[in-house]
Design brief:
Helix content is 16%, strand content 40%. The chain is an alpha+beta fold. The protein has one domain: outer membrane lipoprotein receptor (LolB), chain A. Strands 1, 2, 3, 4, 5, 6, 7, 8, 9, 10, 11, 12, 13 and 14 form a 14-stranded mixed sheet that branches. Strand 12 and strand 13 form a beta hairpin. The radius of gyration is 21 Å and the shape is globular. It starts with a helix and ends in a 27-residue tail after the last helix.
């Protein structure tokens, strides 16, 4: 191969690498958070950077009578929740940094999430927003979930903390549940240049995921104990809440022996 052919080959490779690196994607997900609460989550991808932004104000459906804005009991201004990560990962753990509100205090949490072991069913497909999507299932921290991803958008990520598939997740939900559902409603191949992939979050208390879970559950257990102490000795109450987490993340990596 002569020098001109070598130069041309290098140019083509660099061109396509440059084109891929500059691709941008924005996905708007409709997130069913609980039996009565929904919100939107916007996922942005640019180069190797990934950020999801969740609305801070939820829509609440009360007894099927319609939707109202959730009432905030705090005088603090509304803020958004962020989930920040990188597309590329060197191992089976992904570093995810996110913000979360608990007891009127917002925290900045570092979570090391194990790569899910996905079962991909190539023959089970459906169209979502014009993209051909393939079914995949996994157990995510104790919850069985089903996802549909598209290879037409070759980004190994999705809403919330989901990743590890050979394409972008456009629909994912917990099995046998009417919430913990993310459904893509819009896909754009551009990103608003005003989107900040590195928001300043240093003002929030920092901790890792284990510290946050232990702090939150310690507070919940204390509140439950105080409530029980005020009840009469003959009052019966359910104690399962102390042992079973109601959210999507039911078992964490450090708890698996």
């Amino acid at each position: 191969m002569d020098l001109k052919k070598i130069s041309f080959t290098i140019f083509v490779i660099l061109f396509f690498l440059r084109g891929f690196a500059q691709q941008q994607v924005h996905v708007k997900y409709y997130y069913v958070r609980s039996p009565i609460a929904t919100l939107y989550e916007d996922l942005y991808i640019k180069d190797n950077n990934v950020i999801s932004v969740q609305d801070s104000i939820m829509n609440v459906n009360l007894n099927g009578t319609g939707s109202i804005s959730a009432v905030r009991k705090s005088n603090k201004p509304a803020t958004k929740n962020y989930f920040i990560s990188q597309l590329q990962s060197n191992n089976n753990l992904k570093d995810i940094f996110f913000t979360v509100l608990d007891r009127e205090t917002k925290y900045f949490v570092h979570d090391e999430v194990s790569k899910p072991i996905w079962k991909i069913e190539e023959t089970k497909t459906k169209k979502i927003l014009g993209y051909s999507c393939i079914k995949a299932t996994t157990n995510f921290r104790g919850s069985e979930v089903t996802a549909y991803f598209t290879k037409e958008l070759p980004y190994s990520t999705g809403p919330y903390k989901f990743f590890g598939l050979p394409g972008l997740i456009l629909d994912i939900r917990e099995d046998n549940n009417n919430y913990n559902i993310w459904k893509a409603e819009k896909v754009e191949l551009t990103v608003d240049p005003k989107i900040n992939f590195t928001p300043k979050l240093s003002r929030y208390p920092k901790m890792n995921m284990r510290q946050f879970v232990e702090m939150k559950e310690g507070t919940q257990n204390k509140e439950l104990a105080e409530l029980l102490s005020k009840m009469s000795s003959g009052t019966k109450t359910e104690s399962q809440y102390k042992n079973n987490r109601p959210g999507l993340e039911k078992v964490f990596e450090w708890e698996i022996k």
